[in-house]
Write a structure and sequence with these properties.
Layout (H helix, E strand, L loop, with lengths): L9 E5 L5 E7 L2 E6 L2 H13 L4 E11 L4 E11 L3 H10 L6
Antiparallel strand pairs: 1-2, 2-3, 3-5, 4-5
């Protein structure tokens, strides 16, 4: 599925632990950034259980608003066509606040 670069998608939510989850479209990929280690593990486990093919890494120097400091963030990248399933799974498991 080709997604024109001018079509933007951006979503920011919080988890029950208060960490920030940012989801954005980059080309044909969806990129999820999470700022809390426990949430990072929960979300990566959910992606694995759902069979979503993703790649991820940690990145330093991301601003964490709740803690008012810079720190590491976990980044996952997967096909944008899987985004709806990922968000539904995150909300069903009560990982994201509405």
């Amino acid at each position: 599925m080709y997604v024109p670069p001018e079509e933007k998608y951006w979503l920011i939510k919080r988890t029950r632990r208060g960490s920030l989850v940012t989801i954005e479209r980059v080309g044909n990929k969806a990129v999820v950034e999470v700022t809390n280690y426990e949430d990072m593990m929960d979300i990566s486990g959910l992606l694995n259980a759902a069979g979503i093919k993703w790649k991820g890494h940690r990145k330093e120097r991301t601003f964490i608003p709740r803690e008012k400091r810079y720190g590491p963030a976990w980044i996952a990248e997967f096909d944008f066509s899987d985004l709806e399933e990922v968000i539904m799974n995150l909300e069903d498991r009560k990982l994201l606040l509405e």
